[in-house]
Amino acid sequence: MKMVDEYRNPEQIRALSAGIRAAVGDRSYRFMEICGGHTHSIYRFGLNELLPDNIELIHGPGCPVCVLPIGKVDEALTLTNDPRVILCAFGDVMRVPGSKASPLEAKARGKDVRMVYSPLDALKLAIDNPDKEVVFFAIGFETTAPSTALTILRAAQLKVTNFSVFCNHVTVGPPIRSILESADLELDGFIGPGHVSAVIGTKPYDFVAEEFGRALVVSGFEPVDILESILLLVKMVNRGEASIYNQYVRAVKRDGNPAAVAAIQEVFEERPSFEWRGLGFIEQSAYRIQKKYREFDAEARFAIAEIRSPEPENAICGDVLIGAKRPENCPLLGVLCTPEQPVGALMVSSEGACSAYYTYVHRTLAAAKG
Predict the structure, then answer these.
(1) Is 110 left (phi over 0), alpha (psi -120 to 50) or beta?
(2) How many CB atoms lie under 10 A from the CB of residue 112?
(3) Residue ranges of domains in the chain, CATH in brackets
(4) How far is CA 329 from CA 235, 317, 320, 357, 362, in A?
(5) Quick check: pTM over 0.70?
(6) Which of 190, 280, 291 is nearest to 237 (CA)?
(7) Which value, to the nearest 10 degrees, does the dihedral of the CA atoms of residues 9, 14, 15, 20 take?
(8) pLDDT tens digit string along 69-88?
(9) According to the model, what pLDDT value does residue 303 have?
């Protein structure tokens, strides 16, 4: 692994920016960055300001917290009505609003909700509290699914009987397909997710080129990574080429991480359908726990009933997630929806598009206006 400064070198950044400007033609280019980490890097480093006006970057559904529908938060919080239950979640999930409360607000109201840094923390809580039922509220793409799978395998090995997982892991391919099948959004290519691809590799994206004739470049997260990926996309579009290219070679391999993929395949199976914020129900787009590990499946253990909850009034979270609107189009942004008091999940997560826009653009513009 090379030093990160190499990927923030000002001279290389300027050279790539000049290269992009020299490569673009008279046409317009519309590229979607799937991963929220890329969105934050683009805003943080002002990369959009280094691009010519005829390149438009569109934010996609790559924030794992953001794509979770409100109803799933509500479902998780129903578990806390049982005084035996300790509900565990990652830090960003703690602040995601449900229809009545976020997990953090539920904790403030006396429910036993705890933040953890790893599903293994939740398993340790179960071991240390044998009189309690510890449930890990699992979310995320294939990036975090292996750690959940390995924790379930560890729980089975240790024969822990009071630990279970409320599984809401999703997969990256189906929402990309859903977007490509949409008649409302024309895209020339994708900046592919780096962290997910470190697990699954680049092979699962082949359908983007083969079936839809679009280019996709798996990118790292530093300024040089992203600008190089955009330059590669521009050149492929100019040549009429639809290929899958791995720019993030220092972290991503064609076949991904075989051990991580094996853990996923051992513990999980595809759900027939799963609801996504902004995209609705998408077939085979999420994981559920296989029957052989049913004893660790909170949905089976607690018979969790499905809840479908509407988006907050005037919030446009779903439209931002699918690239139909931008954060600055939301009437709530910076007024009723802020990082301190988020109305929507996109303002909560460290990968959320609204959080990125508010942090790096909105506050600067507001300060300039006095």
Answers:
(1) left
(2) 18
(3) 4-63+179-241 (3.40.50.11750), 70-171+256-302 (3.40.50.11740), 317-369 (no CATH)
(4) 31, 10, 9, 11, 12
(5) yes
(6) 190
(7) 130
(8) 999 999 999 999 999 999 99
(9) 92
